[in-house]
Amino acid sequence: MADRVLDLLVTRGHEAHAGEPVSVADHSLQAAQAAELDGAPPALVVAALLHDVGWLLRSGSRRHEVRGADHLSTLFGPDVTEPVRLHVVAKRYLCTIDPDYRTVLSEGSVRTLRRQGGLLDEAAREAFAAHPHADDAIRLRRYDDRAKVPGARVPDLDHYVPLVTGLLR
Question: Which domains does the chain have, with CATH numbers?
Answer without folding.
Answer: 2-167 (1.10.3210.10)
